[in-house]
Amino acid sequence: MNTWGFINSFGVFQTYYINSLSRPAADISWIGSMQIFLLFFIGTITGRLTDAGYFRSIFLIGTILCLLGLFMTSISTTYWQVFLAQGICMGLGNGCLFCPALATLSTYFSTKKSLVIGISAAGSATGGVVFPIMVQQLLPKIGFGWTMRSLGLIQLVCLGICNFGIKQRVPPRKSGAWIDYPSFKDVPYMLFAAGMFFNFWGLYFGFYYLGAYARSIIGVPLAESINIIIVLNAVGVVGRVIPNHLADRVFGPLNTLIPIAIIDSLLCFCWIAVSTRGGLYTWSVMYGIFAAGIQGLFPATLSSLTTDLRKAGVRMGMVFTVVSFAVLTGPPIGGVLIQKNNGGYEYAQIFAAIDLLAGTGFLLMARLARSRKLLTKM
């Protein structure tokens, strides 16, 4: 809720910042992209520290950084202040929270691991609903500063519970490199990393620009554009739980992820034809479900590719670092393509769709590299 829930809500801030900071959409998207970039990029460091037994220290540091970033954002008035507070400070905080929590959770379950990770990821859908609603209701009444402090109070309570409730199960692995070099010889693992790079390169364009698209192309007011983002995030509960349940019971996480990524790519192509309110709500529901499926199955699939639980943190962190460069550059590239197209979204929508399609190709190669038996669960 406090990491991806807040990040998936950035579409609300994207729309607000374009007006309040008087900067183009491409510039504003760097704030959200930097936040996700740092969440993933420092995964190698935080993952290895988690393996070494420093989970509680890292998680506490992440909690402090997130709350500090939110408070500093609440008193920011310029683009660079917001960039430093919400983009960098909160990004570093999220990076100290996400990978350690996920790596620790994955060590508690040997069966139904995908479902467990999917349920935990469903918290991002909760945050993706709660935070936009709070912004929508509070912003006109108490202003930007106190709205952000109110969001900080929610995070304080949730993260306080997590700091006391999450404990490491696997004994610390004190020795070992920060990078697990044998993993570079693991062909399915490397192909999966490449596939997720391309998937994440295109995935977040929809989350960031849907609200702006609703206002500039469809012509809806600000309040309704926020409602559309809420719908996009709310249906993510379905996309995170059901595919992960099917992955455990029937297909396996990688087999489930591939068709979901294909559908998500097709939906980005279909977005080009959306020109009405009803069509946009329908598209938001469909994209929200399948984009959430990718988000939920990503860590579950990555966890399934790691057999040595003592290396769960570092192997997750290595892939997180790879995909960090995708999430850093994807949305800003989309913003530049919109500017080059004189405010039209077609180029950016095609860019996102092709990225997702290319990512699916690498995932398919990872599947075949692991086993050519199509009916094998994996």
UniProtKB/TrEMBL annotation:
InterPro entries the UniProt entry points to: MFS, MFS_dom, MFS_trans_sf, Proton-linked_MCT
Parts of the chain that traverse the membrane: 28-46, 58-77, 83-103, 115-134, 146-166, 187-210, 222-242, 254-274, 280-305, 317-338, 350-369
Membrane-related topology note: Multi-pass membrane protein
Record SUPFAM superfamilies: MFS general substrate transporter (SSF103473)
All residue ranges annotated as the Major facilitator superfamily (MFS) profile domain in the record: 1-373
GO terms assigned for molecular function: transmembrane transporter activity
Principal subcellular localisation of the protein: membrane
Keywords: Membrane, Transmembrane, Transmembrane helix
A Gene Ontology cellular-component term: membrane
Localization of this protein: Membrane
Cited PROSITE patterns: MFS (PS50850)
Sequence similarity: Belongs to the major facilitator superfamily. Monocarboxylate porter (TC 2.A.1.13) family.
Protein name: Major facilitator superfamily (MFS) profile domain-containing protein
Organism annotation: Monilinia fructigena
Lineage summary: Eukaryota, Fungi, Dikarya, Ascomycota, Pezizomycotina
